C-alpha cells in the first residue's frame, strides 16, 4: 500500500504517513478530508537567515564563549532590526491577486465592527506559502474587500496559539508569539502602541461597551488593559470572561444555555439564542428522528410563541448533527445539512417565526466543514474550512468570500 506524508488542509499540522487515498482525520484539529485531495507536505518555516543575520549569531556565540571562559554570567537579548520577516506593519493593503490566503479561525471567530460608519469585520488570516505568515485584518462587510492588515505576526507554527485579537470601541488588540501586545486603530489599522509582556498571551477577552480587555499570559499573569491609555492593571478573571479561548468559542456558538428555554413537548433543546426582545430555541424531535426545529418564546414568561421546522427540504434528507446558528437584529440565521454533501443557510423572523429566506450554499471541494457563524444586524459571517463567506442578513445574498475555498 502506498503511504504519503501530508499537511492537514485545515490547521497545517504535519501528519504521520497514511494511505495515499481515502478518508482520513487530523489528530490535531479533528478535520476530516480525502487524502488524495490534500496538499503534499511542505516546509512551513521562514526563509534561510541572511548573511548579516548569520554573522550576528556567530558574533553573539563568540561573545558568550568569552564570557563563559571568564566565569561571568551573561543575559542575552536579541532584538530584530531593519527590514525583513520580523517587521510588523499596519496599513491599508488591497488584496494581492496572487496571494493564497486562508481564513484562519483558530485564533477566534471574526468580530463584527463598524469602520468609517459602515459594517465591517476583523479576524485572523494565514498567507500560505514559503513563510506561512499570520495576519490580523479588517474587511468591509458589503463587498468583503480588505481595508487594512496588521502583520506579518510570525508563521503559523510559531504563533497559531498566541496570535489573538479583540475589538473594543475604536481599538483592536493584537498579540503575537514574541510576547508583544499591540493597540491598533480600528479605522486605519495603524499601530497606536506596542507593549512587551513577560510571556505569550493565551487568552484575550474583549467585552462590548467597555474600554478594557482582559489579557491572560502563559506565565499565569493577568491584566486588565485600558485600550485608550495602554495602562495595564493586574486583575483576576472577570465574571464575563470564559475560562479559555476554546470555551469562549463554544459559548459564542451555543448561545445563552439551554436552561433559558421553555419546556417543549417531545423535543430536546440543543441551543438557545436571545436578543433584546425574543428568545429562539433550536431543538430536535425526541424521541424519534432528530428533525431540527426552531421555537420562539417570550423572554419574560417563557411562553411559546411559535414552532417551525427549520429545513425547507424533505426532512428525510436532512443530515443529523450540529450546525451553527445565531440571532441578531430580530433574525435567527441557522445552517443545516441536506442529502450527502449539501449545506443550507436559512433565516426566520424571531418575532413571528416566518421564514425570511433559505439558500443552498455553493459546493466546495475536499473538506467542507462549517466552522462557525457570526450573525449581526445587517450581515452574517460563515466560516467554511479555509474561507469566510459574507451574507446579507436581510436577503441571504452572498456578498463576498475571504480566503481560499478549495485545497484542490
Question: What would you note in describing this structure?
Answer:
It contains three helices and 30 strands. Helices cover 8% and strands 40% of the residues. It has 408 residues and is mainly β. The protein folds into three domains: 3-37, no CATH class; 89-245, YVTN repeat-like/Quinoprotein amine dehydrogenase (Methylamine Dehydrogenase, Chain H, 7 Propeller), CATH 2.130.10.10; 255-403, Beta Barrel (Lipocalin). A hairpin with a 2-residue loop joins strand 7 and strand 8 (118-127).
Quote the average pLDDT. 82
* Proportion of helical residues: under 10%
How many structurally independent domains? 3
Instruction: Assess the beta-strand content as a share of residues.
Output: 35-45%
Q: Helical segment tally?
A: 3
Biggest sheet character: 6 strands, antiparallel
Which shape, going by the Cα principal axes?
A: globular
Distance between the termini: 23 Å
Amino acid at each position: 500500500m502506498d503511504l504519503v506524508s501530508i499537511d492537514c488542509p485545515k490547521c497545517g499540522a504535519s501528519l504521520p504517513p497514511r494511505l495515499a487515498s481515502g478518508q482520513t482525520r487530523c489528530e490535531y484539529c479533528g478535520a476530516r478530508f480525502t487524502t488524495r485531495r490534500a496538499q503534499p507536505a511542505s516546509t512551513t518555516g521562514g526563509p534561510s537567515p541572511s548573511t548579516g543575520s548569520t554573522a550576528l549569531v556567530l558574533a553573539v556565540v563568540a561573545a558568550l564563549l568569552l564570557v563563559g571562559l571568564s566565569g561571568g554570567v551573561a543575559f542575552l537579548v536579541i532584538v530584530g532590526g531593519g527590514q525583513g520577516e520580523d517587521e510588523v506593519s499596519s496599513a491599508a493593503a488591497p488584496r494581492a491577486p496572487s496571494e493564497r490566503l486562508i481564513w484562519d479561525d483558530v485564533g477566534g471567530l471574526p468580530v463584527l465592527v463598524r469602520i468609517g460608519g459602515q459594517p465591517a469585520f476583523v479576524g485572523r488570516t494565514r498567507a500560505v506559502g514559503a513563510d506561512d505568515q499570520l495576519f490580523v485584518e479588517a474587511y468591509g462587510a458589503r463587498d468583503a474587500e480588505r481595508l487594512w492588515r496588521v502583520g506579518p505576526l510570525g508563521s503559523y507554527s510559531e504563533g497559531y496559539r498566541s496570535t489573538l485579537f479583540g475589538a473594543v470601541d475604536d481599538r483592536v488588540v493584537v498579540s503575537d508569539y514574541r510576547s508583544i501586545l499591540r493597540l491598533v486603530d480600528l479605522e486605519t489599522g495603524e499601530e497606536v502602541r506596542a507593549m512587551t509582556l513577560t510571556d505569550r498571551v493565551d487568552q484575550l477577552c474583549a467585552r462590548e461597551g467597555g474600554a478594557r480587555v482582559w489579557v491572560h499570559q502563559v506565565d499565569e499573569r493577568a491584566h486588565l488593559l485600558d485600550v485608550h491609555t495602554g495602562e495595564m492593571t493586574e486583575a483576576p478573571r472577570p465574571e464575563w470572561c470564559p475560562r479559555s479561548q476554546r470555551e469562549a468559542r463554544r459559548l459564542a456558538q451555543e448561545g445563552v444555555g439551554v436552561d433559558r428555554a421553555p419546556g417543549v413537548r417531545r423535543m430536546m433543546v440543543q441551543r438557545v439564542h436571545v436578543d433584546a426582545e425574543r428568545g429562539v430555541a433550536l431543538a430536535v424531535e425526541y424521541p424519534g428522528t432528530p428533525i431540527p426545529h426552531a421555537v420562539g418564546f417570550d423572554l419574560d414568561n417563557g411562553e411559546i410563541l411559535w414552532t417551525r421546522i427549520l429545513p425547507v427540504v424533505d426532512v428525510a434528507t436532512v443530515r443529523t448533527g450540529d450546525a451553527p446558528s445565531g440571532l441578531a437584529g430580530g433574525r435567527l440565521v441557522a445552517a443545516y445539512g441536506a442529502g450527502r454533501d449539501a449545506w443550507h443557510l436559512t433565516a426566520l423572523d424571531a418575532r413571528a417565526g416566518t421564514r425570511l429566506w433559505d439558500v443552498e450554499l455553493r459546493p466546495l471541494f475536499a473538506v467542507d466543514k462549517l466552522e462557525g457563524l457570526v450573525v449581526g444586524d445587517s450581515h452574517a459571517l460563515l466560516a467554511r474550512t479555509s474561507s469566510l463567506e459574507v451574507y446579507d442578513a436581510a436577503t441571504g445574498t452572498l456578498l463576498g468570500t475571504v480566503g481560499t475555498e478549495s485545497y484542490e
